[in-house]
Amino acid sequence: MSYRMKFTYTAWLVAFLLIGSLWPAVSYATHVRAGEITTRRLPGNSLTYEITLTVYFDEARGRDAARQQETVTFCFGDGTTQEVRRLPPTLLRGNPNTSINIYRTTHTYPGPGTFSISVAITNRNNGTINMLDPVNTSFYISTTISVNAALGLNSTPVLLNPPLDSARVGQRFCHNPAAFDADGDSLAYRLTIPQQGVPSNPCRGVVVNGYRDPARGINPNAQTEAQNAPATFTINPITGDLCWDAPGAAGQYNVAFIIEEWRNGVLIGEIIRDMQIVVTDNPNRRPQLQAPADLCVEAGTLINQTVTATDPDGHRLELTAFGGPFNRGPDGQPYPDALVAPQAATFTTPNQPQNSPATGTFRWQTNCSHIRQEPYDIVFRAVDFPGRNATQLATLQSFRITIIGPRPQNLAARPTASPTGGRAVQLTWSPYTCAPPGSLMLVYRREGCPPLQLSPCQTGLPPGSGYTEVGRVPSTATAFVDTLNLRRGIQYSYVIVAQYPLPQGGVSIASQPVCFNLPLLAPVLTNVTVDSTSETRGVITVRWTRPLGLNPGDLGAPYQYRLLRSTGLGTTTFTPVATITTTLTPGVADTLFVDRGLNTTQNAYTYQLEFYFTATNGQLTRLDATEPASSVRLSTTPALRQIQLSWQAQTPWSNDNQRHRVYRSRRGPNGPFNLIAEVAVQGPNTYVYTDTGSDTFLADGNTSLPLSADSSYCYRVETVGRYPDSRIPVGLLYNFSQIICASPIDTTRPCPPVLSLDPLDCAALTDESFCNQSSFSNNLRWRYPERDARNQLCDQTITSYNIYYSRYQEDERSERLTSVPAPVTTFEHSSLTSVAGCYYVTAVNRRGLESAPSNRVCNDNCPAYKLPNVFTPNGDGRNDVFQPLACPRFVETVEFVVYNRWGAKVFQTTDPNLNWNGKTTAGQDLASGLYYYQVTVRFASVSRNAPPLVQKGWIQLLRDGVSMR
């Protein structure tokens, strides 16, 4: 999840000493302001985690309670708890009225699973105006982790920006937690509601009482800073930018948000942060901050950037920065466990506030240990010093740095021998040292050598580059042998890319491509042409060149050609058909073979030629073999007064971008054949020609006449090809297909009918319309198009209609229900359990030809499921059971859950009729009172993926002799 976004934070009040004067005196029991739980899996045991609770206590109004909070109880989510002591507390930098309190322990889980770690502390500090009675509301926080050995060492994100902030009434405010994940996992953000503990179960939390949305829950008329829309309170799911535009009332607020941790597309954990915002109403203008533009650099680059801030009121400014690369916690002290490998980044500013404009220098010497797929986020903050009686404001901007792996160097290619014999390419490159253990070097190949266009921060190979992976080796390797389907006469391009292991993941910049041509030391095929078409006496002539680049005497003579044949187009089950021994003497005819006795009527044939030389031990040794080449296979498709021809061949030469020749005989397969067209062929899917009887090539006579269904016409095609490799100087290559004969069609095909379906009028139905009805019908009607100016080709001799049905509209295939004779144009589909379904109709003429499908029409059910809001389970026989109101319609499944007023689940069932008798699921009677329910109903619908109906409501349960009629 890597996105680029620049954001500005405003209305940051850092002088909490000033705000302390706004709070009334309260009990010493109030002290918790904010906090979160983080975890880290320890090396050596995949089930043991270090768990840290970081909470912020109110030292101004709850000093005694803060001092007494020496221990808290951790709930580990596996049924166990532990009392954990506090580490020595520290005061928050720049805010002596707030202390940072850390409770840390280790815990070993019994096995893999998902666990929710939680802590409840009594009580929150007083004065929070967007919840009821905060002084008597406990602080509850939780974090969820996935314990899975396959994840490797894993830490939740750490939050480096303290969760205490201040804002100004009417001015846009933003906060960012400066979350950093040391493992490079992706983070996503969403809002939630602060929670409080349940007195009867300290390991369970519920939403705080009376929570109100900060944006308009206190001041319903609050507006944005621009005064052009209602106020909003949102969080950016990608950057974590928590923005309030704009506070409408002064006071103390608590809010919460969730940070999700994703790895390789899987959610592996989430943190809840509960934070506090204090809003005041003092005039001041926020500073202006200029952060560097986002960077993408190769590992090893020194990053040196200047940050500048100005204040429109001329106030002094302080610049600070947060982020994982600094290896510092929210208190500004070195982080206990290094977040990034040395060297860490630095941000240098004067020790005292600066006059405007203020500057700071960000410096980071990157190295290979800093490579990861996700970018590093740096948050710069500029805060002003307006004086004792004014609220300080701050502006934040982010700076995103992506550190990528360097390009592999010095890739080279040369021919070599395959370990199993045959063609091979040896690739070599310089040692690649910028990769952690477990990294791989990926080898890619493509045909041709076009330039590789890469954007400045492009890692790996972009989509559509044409490269395919052909191998992978450890990143410590410096060589690779490619033996995968290499073809003679083809120019290849190779690149290599380093791939890093998870969790950091990602790949390096691709190497510079290297181009390579296989040396031509073997013959190449030039012709596989059909001379005679017959089931038993077919003839094909095969031609080839002598070995290109090989001179007599280069290898031991005599030499030998071995011609192999396989039946079929592009098949590879070869058998020998000819052996020709030669000395490569000039003028000797040794590059042609006429293959006889073939069934060229039914089959195409594929040939391959092997070349042997005499080794020093006197044995014939195979040097190489040509690429297979097939004969041209022609096929016909008769149509209305025309015949479509299509042909194909699988050859090492290309038949594209040439003009193929089409020949026709009106007197049978023995000819004469006339050239009737030259077809411009652009690509492999354009080997087609439609013969309507015309003759566009008149040099051998004009044979143009309309085609008749009473006659048979015979064809053959001559393809024209060329080797794309300029080192094969054989010119154009001409090859004939077999002869094939066909007749056109003289009858038009039926046109598709026009279908309609009687719909179900849901609005006209009453609740009792379908009661006790278990069988339904759909009535279809259609009409067949009459022949007119638009439908001249519609055959009117229709003998029957086929009706097709599918239960769901998403179904790609429909089953044929039945066939009805013409002229019937109606059909009743009966004995259905519901009316949901889709239909189409086709017409069939007297020749048995079926039309294309008609329009597809669908019917859907009219679902209904209504619930009462009161029942009296008092045993009087009247209204003793809570059930749906009269006649639910087309219900497939039901999930019904009942809660009491405290949110505890008391009853659930999947019975469509519910039949709740006022007892809990365990069979205990429930007291009279108001209960809340949620029911999820899935109906039989025409859509397989139709969403369920989810209803929420209340139920009045009455006992004590009350009855209802």
UniProtKB/TrEMBL annotation:
Domain PKD: 76-123
Gene3D superfamilies in alphabetical order: Immunoglobulins (2.60.40.10)
Domain of life, source organism: Bacteria
Signal sequence coordinates: none
Protein name: PKD domain-containing protein
